[in-house]
Amino acid sequence: MFITLEGIEGSGKTTQVEHIVEFLQSRGHDCVVTREPGGTKIGKKIRAILLDPESKDMDSLAELLLYVADRVQHINEFVNPFLFAGKTVVCDRYYDATVAYQGYARGLDISLINRLHKLALKDLKPDITILLDLPPEIGLGRAWKQIKSGARTDIETRFEKETLSFHKRVRAGYLELARIEPERFRVIDASKNENHVRKEIIEALVQKMT
Ligand code: TMP
């Protein structure tokens, strides 16, 4: 089973990934956790370029191709071998992030993104995608609080430094993707507290698995 988590900055994905794994393991699933960008050794180098605030002048198409490069390496080196071995793969962000950020928010052609995905990844789709949804004003507030307190690194803040309207377009893009594919997406209100969100995610997983 291939499970992905999506959401804007400060939506709490990283914390919830830990809860998901704990739950799946308690149900006897053999899971691995990973993320994009940066799920492989090569991907970590690509991540550093993509998230460095000093990369602020990066061309949008170059940005898109770097995310796709990271993903091709990650799927071929990590995700597919584990899926073929029968493991459950839990991934913090995947292809939907590219459609939301580079497509809806940056304005790149979504059909180009879809074609690249088909070509490079043979259209590998998650079985379930959990979308942690919340207003960007709240998400960005949380993200900057974590960065300022040192809980999160400040060398990966290129996207946090984008405008509020950019993050509003990301959120709207994700919600549109969830509307288009209701079978795959579960939208969860991430403005609620951690435990409430955890319970809702687990309910969604149980529904999917039964
Ligand atoms: P994160 O690991 O903290 O979620 O940060 C990854 C950042 O990269 C986040 O701001 C979203 C952005 N991103 C894209 O713009 N496109 C993508 O395809 C992916 C996977 C992430």
Strand coverage percent: 5-15%
How would you state the average pLDDT, rounded?
Answer: 96
CATH architecture: 3-Layer(aba) Sandwich
Question: What is the straight-line distance between the termini?
Answer: 13 Å
Number of strands: 5
CATH homologous superfamily designation:
P-loop containing nucleotide triphosphate hydrolases
CATH domain class name = Alpha Beta
Mass-distribution shape: globular
Number of helices: 8
- Number of domains in the coordinates? 1
The distinct bound ligands, ions and cofactors come out as: thymidine-5'-phosphate
Class based on secondary structure composition and strand pairing = alpha/beta
CATH topology: Rossmann fold
Q: Assembly type of the shown chains?
A: single chain
Give the helix level as a range of percent: 55-70%
Which strand order does the major sheet show? Answer: 2-3-1-4-5
What series of H and E elements makes up the topology?
Answer: EHEHHEHHEHHEH
What value does the Rg take, in angstroms? 16 Å
**Low-confidence spans:** none
What composes the largest sheet? 5 strands, parallel
Description of the molecule:
- The protein is an alpha/beta fold.
- The protein has one domain: 3-Layer(aba) Sandwich (Rossmann fold), CATH 3.40.50.300.
- The protein contains eight helices and five strands; from the N terminus they run βαβααβααβααβα.
- The chain is globular, with a radius of gyration of 16 Å.
- 35% of the residues are buried.
- The model has no long low-confidence stretch (mean pLDDT 96).
- It binds thymidine-5'-phosphate.
- The site of thymidine-5'-phosphate has 12 residues, from helix 4.
